[in-house]
Amino acid sequence: MRLRVDLLPHGNYPDVVLVIDTLRATTTAITYLERGAEALLLTRTPDVALNLKEQAGGQYVLGGERGGLPIPGFDFGNSPVEAAAQNFTGRTVVMNTTNGTDAAHVAARTGKHVYLASITNAHAAARRAKAQATEEVAIVCAGTDQHVGLEDVYAAGVIAEYLLALGEFSIDDGTRIALTVRRNAGNPLEALSSSVHGERLAGLGLGEDVRYAAQVSTSTIVPTLTPDAQAPEGTLHFTAG
Q: How far is CA 234 from CA 108, 120, 158, 224, 231, in A?
C-alpha cells in the first residue's frame, strides 16, 4: 500500500484521497456536520452558491470566505468556532472557500473515495482511509493561494503518523516532509499559530479558530463524498461518515 502526501493539489488520485484545509475549510466542514447538518455542498465559485440560495429559498445555508472574511450574501463565514455555536439540524450547508473547496474538486476528478480531513478528525480519517484503500492513500494539502501552507503539511504529518501506526505503507518524499514537519514544528497550536495563514487569521481577530483547529482527534466525523447523490450541477455532495 502506498502513502502519498501532496503539499499542493496535483490530481491523478487513483484510490483514497484525504483533503486537508486545516485553517479552516475542512475543520469547519466537520463542525457543520457535528452540529447536525444533513449534507454539505462544496462549490467551485461563490456565484454557484449564491445562485443555489436564490433558486431554492431557505433550503440552503451558505458558508464561506474570501481572504479570511465572510463572502457578501453568505449566511456565515468559514469559522469552526462560529459553526460550533449554531444548530444546523436537517440543513444543507453550501460552502465556498479560497482554497479548500477547490482542492476537494481536484480530488473528486479521479478519486474513488474522497474525504475531508483535519487535525480535529485525524484519527477517524486515518482509520476510514485505511479501511477503504486498496492501493493508495493520498493526503492532499490545500495550501494557501497556491502556496504550501505549514498548517496543512503539519496536519498531513499528524494523519500520516496515525496511518503508519495502523499498517504497512511505502511512503513518498511528500510523506517524509510532512512527518518531519510534524515531529519538529512543536505542538499543533504552536505549528498552526506560527504559520503565515495562522498569523493572518490572528490579525483578523480569528485566533480562536486557530486554537479550535489545533485540537487533535476531537471528532469522529469524516465528511464523505457521495458522488451518486442528486447534487446540483457544480457542487460536490458530502455527508457525515
A: 12, 28, 31, 17, 8
Pairing of the two strands 2-6 and 170-171: parallel
Q: What is the pLDDT of residue 58?
A: 76
Q: Give yes or no for a contact between 235 and 59, defined as CB atoms under 8 angstroms apart.
A: no
pLDDT tens-digit series, residues 35-78: 999 999 999 999 999 999 888 767 899 999 999 999 999 999 99
What span, in angstroms and rounded, lies between the C-alpha atoms of 30 and 187?
21
Rounded distance between C-alpha atoms, residue 216 and residue 52, angstroms = 34
Residue 8: helix, strand or coil by DSSP?
coil
Residue at 107: amino acid letter = A
| Residue (of 12, 16, 18, 11) closest to 1 by Cα position | 16
End-to-end CA distance of the chain: 23
C-beta atoms surrounding 51 within 10 Å: 15
For the whole model, what pTM was predicted?
0.96
Angstrom distances, CA of residue 148 to CA of 8, 132, 197: 6, 27, 10
| Percent helix / strand / coil, the chain, rounded to 5 | 45, 20, 35
* Rounded distance between C-alpha atoms, residue 167 and residue 112, angstroms: 20
Length of the chain: 241
Helices (H) then strands (E): counts for the chain: 10, 11
Which of helix, strand or coil describes residue 122? helix
